[in-house]
Design a protein that fits this description.
Mean pLDDT of chain A: 95
CATH class of one domain in chain B: Alpha Beta
Largest sheet of chain A: 10 strands, mixed
CATH superfamily of one domain in chain B: Glutaconate Coenzyme A-transferase
CATH architecture of chain A: 3-Layer(aba) Sandwich
Shape of chain B: globular
CATH architecture of one domain in chain B: 3-Layer(aba) Sandwich
Helix content of chain A: 10-25%
Strand order of the largest sheet of chain A: 4-3-2-1-5-8-10-11-12-13
Low-confidence stretches of chain A: none
CATH topology of chain A: Glutaconate Coenzyme A-transferase
Helix content of chain B: 10-25%
Low-confidence stretches of chain B: none
Number of strands of chain B: 11
Strand content of chain B: 25-35%
Oligomer: heterodimer
Order of helices and strands of chain A: HEEEEHEEEHEEEEEHE
């Protein structure tokens, strides 16, 4: 029998780490994809209220098969449920919550984050790319705290944490913290700060896979 | 007696001319006025500018209007989704123009249009390519982009229940852009699932007061876009 030694964090573990950092009572907006996993890991004793851009506070879990309602969906256009205390509102009200600074935490996926806290997550800028921005630029400007969940490098092995984003920006100087499969990284006044290493991962490996200077603050 | 009810979707959209600017409600399939859009396809108006968050799904509703090449320009926040094939193909062929607007900015531009506010400043897009060519201004040491309001000749809207005066309520996340679009169009055309007596809607819960509504048509059993797509339906 081969002993399996875990190296790095799984997607679920990254989501759980992010959930642990969200304060009790927070109004939270989760981006499409990996950030949606955060909702599975609300710590014992904490209560979050989920906001979805298409006009709802109090988004609940996915309905059971056969229980879907075509008129109850999230920003990713997937079926959801409403918790007791939920409310519905139109799009201008929904983005008043976002742009007016009423949402506490937003967790987003990304293509690149710079050491300044810039984020690029909406377009590759390629000639044949169909651009679609959705609510990403509103969220990064308006939500009080922006967390990012992402693999540390791309499938090709390119760094996602970089000195300057090469893709078109979603927003400048807006990211506070990044949860990767290798580490938890803060954006500090002097650039990236490694706060915690995943199991079996060395700081040297994080340095090697980061496209910018990173300070050891573990 | 005020009665905004017309007999059919065809009658409701009959006067929409070529070159009109039309706001179309809905986010994904929720709240999309599919029957009104299909009536517009049948009616034949072309060279349209459409303001809607997405570009439709499959080959029904807004996607079918775009596929029929009636739309010269789309103003939207997210023209691509897993069920959206029509727009990307025409866009890449250079047959349709796109004005890409962040979702909050498009909502606020519509709200401002309805409220008689010609322009406003927002932090959204500052430092990005979507702010290029726009006026920037600082307030309290933070930079903002000026955005112009949006109005339209027509709005096509879906609601859950209406009375003959045009008071409206919606259903869950099918509300989305519909109420603000009602306020920003010269002529607002609404399809409602239920028609109720005047007085039946609690004044405390009416979302769209009748002042914003011009025409109503009852579509008691509206099409469900995702079901049509599953069945492989392509309109017309």
């Amino acid at each position: 029998m081969t002993e399996v030694i875990q190296k790095g964090w799984t997607r679920e573990q990254m989501a759980e780490l992010a959930a642990q950092d969200i304060p009790n009572g927070a109004i939270v907006n989760l981006g499409i994809g990996m950030p949606e996993l955060v909702a599975k890991f609300v710590p014992e004793g904490k209560e979050f209220i989920y906001h979805t851009e298409n006009g709802m506070l109090g988004m609940g879990p996915t309905p059971a098969p056969g229980e879907e309602d075509h008129e109850l969906i999230n920003a990713g256009k997937k079926s959801i449920t409403a918790i007791p205390g939920a409310s519905f509102f139109h799009h201008a009200d929904s983005f008043t919550m976002i742009r007016g600074g009423h949402i506490d935490v937003c967790v987003l996926g990304t293509m690149q984050v710079s050491e300044q806290g810039d984020i690029a997550n909406w377009s590759t800028g390629a000639e044949n790319d169909i651009p679609g921005v959705g609510g990403a630029m509103d969220l990064v400007q308006g939500v009080k705290t922006i967390y990012v969940i992402t693999t540390h490098v791309t499938k090709k092995g390119d760094a996602k944490l970089v000195e300057h984003c090469s893709y078109p920006l979603t927003g400048k100087k807006v990211i506070s913290r990044i949860y990767t499969d290798l580490a938890i990284v803060d954006v500090g006044p002097d650039g990236f700060e490694c706060k915690r290493l995943a199991p079996g991962v060395s700081f040297d490996e994080v340095v090697a896979k980061t496209g910018a200077r990173i300070i050891d603050k573990t | 007696m005020i009665n905004k009810l017309v007999a059919s979707a065809a009658e409701a959209v009959a006067d929409i001319p070529d070159g009109a600017t039309i706001m179309i409600g809905g986010f994904g399939e929720a709240g999309s006025p599919t029957e009104l859009i299909h009536a517009l396809i049948d009616q034949g108006a072309k060279n349209l500018t459409v303001i809607s968050n997405n570009t439709g799904n499959g080959e029904v509703g807004l996607a079918a209007l775009i596929a029929a090449e009636r739309v010269d320009k789309m103003i939207c926040s997210f023209p691509k989704s897993s069920q959206s094939r029509v727009f990307p193909a025409l866009y890449q062929a250079g047959k349709i123009e796109l004005e890409l607007v962040p979702q909050g900015t498009i909502a606020e531009r519509i709200r401002a249009g309805g409220a008689g506010i010609p322009a406003f400043y927002t932090a959204t897009t500052v430092g990005t390519i979507l702010a290029e060519g726009k006026e920037l201004r600082s307030f309290d040491d933070r930079e903002y982009v000026m955005e112009h309001s949006l109005t339209a000749d027509y709005a096509l809207v879906k609601c859950q229940a209406a009375d003959r005066m045009g008071n409206l309520v919606y259903n869950k996340t099918a509300r989305n852009f519909n109420p603000i679009m009602c306020t920003a169009a010269t002529t607002t055309i609404v399809q409602t699932q239920e028609l109720v007596d005047v007085g039946a809607l609690d004044p405390e819960v009416i979302v769209t007061p009748c002042v914003y509504v011009n025409r109503l048509v009852q579509i008691a059993k509206p099409l469900v876009e995702s079901e049509l797509i599953e069945q492989g339906v392509s309109y017309p």
